[in-house]
Amino acid sequence: MTRPDRIRSIGVVGAGQMGAGIAQVAAASGLPVVLTDREQRFLDRALAGIEKSLTRLQEKGSITADARGAALARIRTAADLDALAPCDFVVEAVNENLDLKSGLFQSLDRLCRPDVILASNTSSLSITRIGAVTRRPSRVIGMHFMNPVPIMQLVEIIPGQVTSTETTEETRALALRLGKTPVVSQDLPGFISNRILMPLINEAAFALYEGVGTREDIDTVLTLGMRHPMGPLRLADFIGLDTCLAIMDILHQGFGDPKYRPCPLLRRLVDAGHLGRKSGRGFYDYTDEAKL
User: Fold this and answer.
1) Is residue 181 scored above 80 in pLDDT?
2) pLDDT confidence of 292, banded at 50, 70, 90?
3) What are phi and psi of 36, to 5 degrees?
4) Is the CB of residue 129 less than 8 Å from the CB of residue 54?
5) How far is CA 61 from CA 55, 65, 66, 93, 265, in A?
6) Domains and CATH numbers, the chain
């Protein structure tokens, strides 16, 4: 089996914000990266974002110009999953949809060597169910990075029902190698992070829905009263209201507990296409920012 110090290259599937962040962190740690997506335009956008992020770090003095150039040189892009075949470890960061991820893992299972760990960046879906569609469930694991990946230190490691201890330890060691702090969570809906965070956001939405306070007052209570760096409604806009709603639905369905019932206001905003910063409007309005 592959030992952590023998992982010499990483494959990343999905060139969105999370996938690009994972690719950046891996490349900055010295590992060659193959970043894949379905369309070249997504890959081009990801590379531009990574370059911009590394340039900011250089300007702050966090990295040297040589380190910035070396990290960029370690990233190769491809619009075909076949490019991942030589990689020693593969992590996916595609949309939070079980059918999509399951189909992807079946493809990766056929492409990658039997010893390669297949990791999912899912924030709430069952690792056991994802691993069950492959011929290597013992080598399937959750590796949930926080957003934005280059800044946030935490990585949740989630073993499935049959994930081996060796796989868990190799993934923890890789997280440390990437400069992250790993924590291990049981494979239950929402894991640790979103089982706690999403009900907080949902309750803030209920407080707004029921007129307990304005959006600004609710967020101020949490930032000034609880020392949170960002209010829950503003944070929900940053995450994406569609993502928040999807996770609340998973918690509600997975546990069958009414305390996880999504707030009607949250669902209504998503139905209206008000998804947060990415759509220009959520709990707050960001249309002026888009004009800058």
Assistant:
1) yes
2) very low
3) -120, 150
4) no
5) 10, 9, 12, 29, 43
6) 4-184 (3.40.50.720), 193-282 (1.10.1040.10)
In the DSSP assignment, the letter for residue 9 is -
Which one from 124, 138, 194, 279 is the annotated catalytic residue? Answer: 194
Phi and psi at residue 100, to the nearest 5°: -60, -50
| pLDDT tens per residue, range 140-152 | 999 999 999 999 9
Place of tokens 């969570």: 185
Q: Look at residue 290 in the predicted model and tell me its pLDDT.
A: 54
Which structure tokens are listed for 178?
């990437």
Q: What is the DSSP string of 200-252?
A: HHHHHHHHHHTTSS-HHHHHHIIIIIS--SS-HHHHHHHH-HHHHHHHHHHHH
SS3 173: helix
Considering 120, 156, 185, 202, which one is annotated as catalytic? 156
Task: Write 196-202 long-range contacts (CB < 8 A, 24+).
Answer: 198/244, 198/247, 198/248, 198/251, 199/248, 199/251, 199/259, 199/260, 200/232, 201/232, 201/233, 201/235, 201/236, 201/239, 201/244, 202/244, 202/248, 202/260, 202/262, 202/263, 202/266
Q: Annotated catalytic residue: which of 53, 120, 123, 124? A: 123
Report yes or no: 276 and 241 within 8 Å, Cβ to Cβ. yes
Question: Is 2 a residue whose pLDDT tops 70?
Answer: no
Instruction: Please report the pLDDT score of residue 31 as a whole number.
Output: 97
**Rounded to an integer, what distance in angstroms lies between the CA atom of residue 177 and that of residue 291?**
40
Identify whether 144 is a catalytic site residue: yes
Those residues whose C-beta lies under 8 Å from the C-beta of residue 26, and which sit 6 or more positions away, are 10, 12, 33, 178
Q: State whether residue 186 is helix, strand or coil.
A: coil
Task: Say which of 126, 144, 164, 279 is annotated catalytic.
Answer: 144
Task: Say whether 123 is catalytic.
Answer: yes
Residue pair 289/224 in contact by the 8 Å Cβ criterion: no
